[in-house]
């Protein structure tokens, strides 16, 4: 019996506002609230809420035999909290079914794994903590930003106590080998790897509504037929994609939701497949071989490497200049600063600076607020300059005793504290 | 004395230095007694300041005898029928659309609207050559309808109009050279533009150049008789104090500014390299490149490559008040132009108490004494000058004081008086 592992990634960049040179030193707010809010609300309405409802119904109607997994970045959770708390509620409902696993990743969808181990660990921990608070489960399997993986990153993840990790079944890594088995890390074989089957995944994620594709239209029968044609011995098919596939990358009108509704029944019908989560997979299967990945891979673009984020001099410059500030941020340990520091590390900022326009321009233009990569770079560097000025000021003057910022933060914390208390009391009253 | 003056743009609808200069000059001329100006632009919007002169829009001129005029015009001005991609001013905002569009030279006959008027965009757009052509054509009608003693045409876009007007009225023509294609193209001149420029200069009774630098180009490259070419320097409009609001400078470091179109003519790459050199010696400085243009992306990439992007900022195209805001927070203004016929912006900087560094290859360097002058290619000298001004307060203080004094004495009325002398000499 083969296993099907469905995994969905959820991330929305926290877009920066148009931050001009004149703002440097004068205005310390960097985010484009209007755009962020409108995109989150739109996505909630067109993708997250309808898709969550479908999944919830599927889990109920299939009585625990349908399972899925998610990873949601901290940046996205923060935005849901501010702009669409109902999305979080619906994920909580999914979590309560016991058939949904949430994976660990970096809090801010960052590239910290490539630069700084300590920072990486801090971010992973804070993300896992957040997931546990919200969904009541401690993530056991790790998913790095954009499925970025290398032997070293795998070893670092293993040292954090994770038993498994998911990554791209990149052709130049696997060669003749099949992604449809479990592999393990080359440094620490205890870390098991799930490899994305990019053909079957992208058939849904990218090609579903492409009418020029010779397999269009894709039906559930056709998809199951492809599964049937896989080698008998193969164990696990990893179908990993953006959750935005449902309703955004593939619009409602393309029939993607109907495809999702009918898929589990079609797969389960023959009795030769079952759905599992990544944690189940690493318990159930043994790795078939070691995966050697000396240079980092990812799931992005044709190259499946890092060139989408760190491929030109603009990106490298911004990335280096950002992490030069790390020491100052750490030594200050100032709440507002830490928050901005987290958000500034989002890989999206670097993604927007990508100049590989011609081959993968389509994917890069998704949710991109800038006209050109140069524009993105200029804006980011202006923000970074202001951030640095704040760091310098705080370091020189010591922590501001009673700034408005701090006061607001204190009040915020107080409100949150009371809110949780109220919730607890309400629950108590109800159960009594 | 009545002057029929042809320009291409007029405040507030300007995109380059030409409009500013024309406005300043006409304002100056209006203070001279017994001198009336009819200022013609391709497109009058209706909100221009007409207190100083009568403004005529070619788009508002009624056309008579259309067919006959076109035939006559075409036979006499065949050189205007060009079908090439011309980029006359590299107006930053228009540049991209302009280069990408395939609209050149499609219409050979003009369409008039229901009132018998031609329509103009008044921009440096894709149909520029057609517009120049139409403009010249309307100019002959305007020349017939408006009595005048002398014709004055600003820059090559208006030369054909000036020539056409002269043919109708027979009055003397003065052409005013604000720039030549040698400045704009860095030597690889567009032959069509050159032809129109030379045609205008040949037809003129007198040529006014904005600097000796430009005067030499006119004599050497366009083969004009030196006695026919007169230099009249530009000036700068005094800034009223309401325009200068106090702006909070957000950064503690010294700010070194480049402001202008980011094109080859303005030498932005020398500014980037000099910035890199200065940053190696001091950290207490930020560089700002304000403006846009076809070399912007190259400059962004170069700054990133040098690893100075945290100290080197870009603002994009600045309009109106933002220009003054920029000067307000600047400690040094740098104009490393490769070839600048005049260059009004350093004067504007000096008005705002900003010390300036200008290239020797600029017209304005001929009249300024309280400015540092370097060769545009001499990055070391440029870096040295920047370092000196930001590091030694006394130096910058002297430049501010003396510079302000100097620039306040550069008045458009003086330039206007000079132009008036030229008119009188031509008429007599």
TrEMBL record, chain A:
It comes from the Bacteria. Residues 6-291 form the Glycoside hydrolase family 57 N-terminal domain. Pfam families: Glyco_hydro_57. Keywords: Carbohydrate metabolism, Hydrolase. The keyword NAD does not apply. GO terms for molecular function: hydrolase activity. SUPFAM superfamilies: Glycoside hydrolase/deacetylase (SSF88713). The keyword Hydrolase applies. Belongs to the glycosyl hydrolase 57 family. This is Glycoside hydrolase family 57 protein. It comes from Carboxylicivirga mesophila.
Automatic annotation (TrEMBL), chain B:
PROSITE patterns: PROKAR_LIPOPROTEIN. Residues 146-237 form the Glycosyltransferase subfamily 4-like N-terminal domain. It comes from the Bacteria. Residues 242-405 form the Glycosyl transferase family domain. InterPro entries: Glyco_trans_1, Glyco_trans_4-like_N, Glycosyltransferase_grp1. Pfam families: Glyco_transf_4 (PF13439), Glycos_transf_1 (PF00534). This is Glycosyltransferase family 4 protein. It comes from Carboxylicivirga mesophila.
């Amino acid at each position: 019996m083969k296993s099907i592992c469905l995994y969905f990634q959820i991330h929305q960049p926290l877009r920066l506002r148009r931050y001009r040179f004149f703002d440097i030193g004068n205005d310390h707010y960097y985010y484009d609230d209007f755009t962020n809010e409108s995109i989150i609300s739109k996505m909630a309405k067109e993708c997250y809420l309808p898709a969550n409802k479908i999944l919830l119904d599927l889990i109920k109607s299939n009585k625990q035999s349908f399972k899925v997994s998610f990873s949601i970045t901290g940046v996205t959770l923060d935005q849901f909290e501010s702009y669409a708390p109902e999305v979080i509620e619906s994920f909580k409902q999914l979590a309560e079914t016991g058939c949904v696993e949430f994976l660990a990743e970096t809090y801010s969808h960052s590239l910290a794994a490539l630069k700084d181990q300590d920072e990486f660990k801090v971010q992973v921990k804070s993300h896992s903590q957040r997931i546990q608070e919200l969904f009541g489960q401690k993530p056991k399997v790790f998913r790095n930003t954009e499925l970025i993986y290398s032997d070293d990153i795998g070893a670092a993840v293993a040292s954090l106590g994770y038993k498994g990790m998911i990554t791209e079944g990149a052709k130049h890594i696997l060669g003749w080998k099949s992604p449809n088995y479990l592999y393990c890390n080359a440094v620490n074989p205890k870390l098991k790897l799930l490899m994305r089957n990019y053909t079957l995944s992208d058939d849904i994620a990218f090609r579903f509504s492409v009418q020029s594709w010779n397999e269009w239209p894709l039906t559930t029968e056709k998809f199951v037929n492809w599964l049937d044609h896989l080698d008998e011995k193969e164990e696990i098919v990893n179908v990993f994609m953006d959750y935005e596939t449902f309703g955004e990358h593939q619009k409602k009108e393309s029939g993607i939701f109907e495809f999702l509704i009918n898929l589990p029944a079609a797969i389960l019908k023959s009795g030769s497949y079952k759905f599992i989560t990544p944690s189940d997979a690493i318990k159930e299967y043994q790795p078939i071989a070691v995966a050697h990945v000396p240079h980092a891979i990812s799931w992005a673009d044709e190259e499946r490497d890092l060139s989408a984020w760190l491929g030109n001099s603009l990106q490298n410059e911004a990335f280096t200049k950002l992490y030069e500030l790390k020491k100052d941020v750490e030594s200050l340990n100032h709440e507002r600063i830490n928050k901005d520091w987290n958000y500034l590390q989002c890989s999206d900022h670097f993604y927007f600076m990508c100049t590989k326009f011609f081959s993968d321009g389509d994917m890069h233009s998704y949710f991109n607020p800038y006209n050109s990569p140069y524009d993105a770079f200029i804006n980011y560097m202006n923000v970074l300059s202001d951030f640095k000025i704040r760091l310098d000021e705080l370091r020189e003057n010591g922590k501001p005793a009673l700034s408005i910022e701090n006061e607001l933060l204190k009040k915020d914390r107080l409100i949150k504290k009371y809110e949780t208390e109220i919730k607890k009391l309400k629950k108590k009253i109800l159960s009594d | 004395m009545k002057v029929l003056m042809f320009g291409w743009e007029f405040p507030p609808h300007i995109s380059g230095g030409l409009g500013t200069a024309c406005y300043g000059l006409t304002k100056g001329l209006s203070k001279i007694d017994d001198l009336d100006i009819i200022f013609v632009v391709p497109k009058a919007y209706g909100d221009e300041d007409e207190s100083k002169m009568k403004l005529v829009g070619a788009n508002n001129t009624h056309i008579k005898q259309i067919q006959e005029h076109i035939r006559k015009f075409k036979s006499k001005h065949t050189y205007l029928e060009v079908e090439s991609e011309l980029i006359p001013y590299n107006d930053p905002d228009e540049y991209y659309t302009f280069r990408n569009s395939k609209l050149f030279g499609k219409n050979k006959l003009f369409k008039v609207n229901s009132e018998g008027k031609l329509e103009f965009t008044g921009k440096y757009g894709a149909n520029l050559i057609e517009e120049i052509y139409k403009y010249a054509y309307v100019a002959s009608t305007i020349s017939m309808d408006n009595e005048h003693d002398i014709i004055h045409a600003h820059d090559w876009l208006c030369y054909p109009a000036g020539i056409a007007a002269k043919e109708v009225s027979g009055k003397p023509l003065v052409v005013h050279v604000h720039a030549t294609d040698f400045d704009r193209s860095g030597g690889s001149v567009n032959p069509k533009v050159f032809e129109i420029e030379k045609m205008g200069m040949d037809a003129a009774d007198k040529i006014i150049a904005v600097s000796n630098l430009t005067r030499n180009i006119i004599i050497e490259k366009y083969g004009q008789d030196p006695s026919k070419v007169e230099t009249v320097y530009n000036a700068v409009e005094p800034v009223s104090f309401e325009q200068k609001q106090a702006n909070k400078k957000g950064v503690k470091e010294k700010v070194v500014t480049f402001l202008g179109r980011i094109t080859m003519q303005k030498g932005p790459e020398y500014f980037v390299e000099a910035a890199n050199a200065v940053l190696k010696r001091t950290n207490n400085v930020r560089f700002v490149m304000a403006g846009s243009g076809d070399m912007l992306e190259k400059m962004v990439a170069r700054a990133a490559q040098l690893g100075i992007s945290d100290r080197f900022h870009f603002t994009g195209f600045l309009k109106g008040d933002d220009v003054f805001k920029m000067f307000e927070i600047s400690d040094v203004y740098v104009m490393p132009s490769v070839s600048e016929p005049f260059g009004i912006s350093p004067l504007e900087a000096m008005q705002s108490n900003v010390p300036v560094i200008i290239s020797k290859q600029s017209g304005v360097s001929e009249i300024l004494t309280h400015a540092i002058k370097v060769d545009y290619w001499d990055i070391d000298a440029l870096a040295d000058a920047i370092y000196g001004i930001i590091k030694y307060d006394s130096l910058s203080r002297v430049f501010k004081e003396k510079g302000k004094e100097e620039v306040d004495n550069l008045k458009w009325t003086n330039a206007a008086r000079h132009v008036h002398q030229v008119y009188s000499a031509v008429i007599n």
